[in-house]
């Protein structure tokens, strides 16, 4: 890892090594821009490595975000080969619990000609047959998206950042907090908490939930909120295989792709129980590459940064709902954690450029793994600067 011999001047400096920062650095480097990636920890530790690792165009509405998701699938596929990190084509199965939900999903397939995001309707029997542990009494059918992907985010970002840092065009500065970024004589100057200074033509600030260290005044006036999610890991003593990632029917009333489809069909599926709504619970059950079950999640929104305490009430509501969906599972929790992201409430992304060269990017919400690489490629392709200034 190139943790020595940093230059003072770069073409591009990226602050934050989560999915947004790492991919902005990667594409800057691919364009031949001499790049510096600065990360507060040795490797990123926030939302980008605490998530399910789902890359799911199926949850994106057709249009710009779906296109970014599909572009991201291609980018991850290329990188997984290059880095020798597994990328699993697990697919996603969205479950129906009522006949109305099953009819809705069936109709979605019939009316959709989305060859970029193919889907198949499964009857109740077919759905139950595809998985080790679905409860036949819960399932009325499902919609299966075979092309959705999954990776282990922690494994991926360690390999990715190590690889980026070993290339000649990107330096990686870990364990370092950038404390200021400001225009300086036609460039931007970045200072770190260790007292180092760097300059670049362009600076990308991809600081995730840290809206306090850099430009707090800019963020405060924007439509940004925090969202805290709770996650669980369950043991799998009988080594069962889920086969695919499973989403509860709550997803049908939550994700834009399904809300748009309801609108087009002129229907409105009933909202989940008030307590589930209040806690923002949408059940996902996935499996990591060790075959452990990953179960989540909840969504607690706030205007101020949330703490990292875990709520027993949230955990028991998640498990109670999952027990309706699944049978034959041992619901023993072997790990629990939370993750926090920021969400821009109207556009689904906060992007602002200061002084033509400092780009603030955050607020991507719950779709950062799915769309971040595609977004980063777009942003970097729009950069114009002389390729080599050092
Ligand atoms: C529990 C959970 C499950 C999720 N599941 C999925 C999923 O399955 N699929 C999906 O598409 N999305 C999912 N998401 C959303 C996704 O994880 C986020 O959208 C994404 O990780 C946000 O990435 P980011 O780069 O903006 O932020 P972060 O991951 O928070 O990265 C920001 C980085 O910046 C660093 N940093 C901040 N300030 C500084 C500074 N001043 N100097 C140096 N470094 C700094 C931090 O240390 C951090 O590493 C999930 C999120 C959570 C919390």
Automatic annotation (TrEMBL):
Residue ranges of every copy of the FAD dependent oxidoreductase domain listed in the record: 11-377
Pfam families named among the record's database cross-references: DAO (PF01266)
Record keywords, A-Z: Flavoprotein, Membrane, Oxidoreductase, Transmembrane, Transmembrane helix
InterPro entries with a match to the protein in the record: FAD-dep_OxRdtase, FAD-dependent_OxRdtase_HpnW, FAD/NAD-bd_sf
Any coiled-coil regions, as ranges: none
Transmembrane regions: 12-29
Keyword Membrane on entry: yes
Cofactor(s) annotated in UniProt: FAD
Family: Belongs to the DadA oxidoreductase family.
Protein name: N-methyltryptophan oxidase
